[in-house]
Amino acid sequence: MSADPGSIRADGHQALPNLAAQDASADPHIITAAARTGTDIELQIHTSVAPFDVAAEEWFPAATGFAVTVIVHTVDAQTGVPRYLPPAEPAEWARTIFSTIDSAHGYFLGAVDPGTGSHRRGQIVYRLYLDTDRRAIPVPRQVVTCPHYLLSAIDGRAEITIPTTA
Fold first, then answer.
1. In this predicted structure, what is the pLDDT of residue 164?
2. Could you tell me the end-to-end alpha-carbon distance of the chain, in angstroms, rounded to an integer?
3. pLDDT of residue 114
4. Are 82 and 121 in contact (CB under 8 A)?
5. I want to staple 41 with a disulfide (CB 3.0 to 4.6 A). Which of 21, 35, 92, 129 is the partner?
């Protein structure tokens, strides 16, 4: 399933971040939207951009660029307590955000906090890696701290794991 920016909508004051902009802020970008399930679930979509610059390792070239992280918190619209939502809708948001640079692929990290590698209930994490020209690149092996699954592999139900070094 490819991203369709017209298939999901944020309120007019909550524009999608433009990852292609060279001056894209490293400040987190937050969008809040009601889930389309009609079950009083709210999605809080946090997007952040962080630079990386990793040295070469045996068999892995040096890499410089940006890691775009999209964390989707699924919570009860009334109480704010984490609620379960199948990953199809959060994945659609991630793909749509990634498509602002003409790339609907990326990586699915699951319910893992990308900073600590530990499970965090009520969130789903996606990541995209960009070179310095803001083109999508494969994940540099040196920055992997938790399993990464290709979004396209998730669609096809195949599991592709990049082993971690942490």
1. 38
2. 32
3. 79
4. yes
5. 35
In the predicted model, what is the mean pLDDT of residues 41-65?
92
Residue 159 has pLDDT above 80, yes or no: no
DSSP string, 98-149: HGGGT----EEEESB-TTT--B-TTEEEEEEEEETTS-EEPPPGGG--S--E
Please tell me the distance from the alpha carbon of residue 44 to that of residue 75, in angstroms, as a whole number: 8
Please list, residue by residue across 5-14, b when 16 or more beta carbons sit within 10 angstroms of its beta carbon and e when fewer do: eeebeeeeee
Structure tokens at 58: 């045996």
**β-bridge pairing 149-150 and 136-137:** unpaired
**116 pLDDT exceeds 70?**
yes
Q: Which of 9, 3, 47 is nearest to 27 (CA)?
A: 47
Higher local confidence (pLDDT), 75 or 120: 75
**What's the average model confidence in pLDDT over 127-136?**
91
Residue 92 identity: E
Question: 89 with 54: CB under 8 angstroms?
Answer: no
Question: Could you tell me the maximum CA-CA distance found in the chain, to the nearest angstrom?
Answer: 51
Q: What is the mean pLDDT of the chain?
A: 80
The span from the CA of 20 to the CA of 140, in Å, is: 20
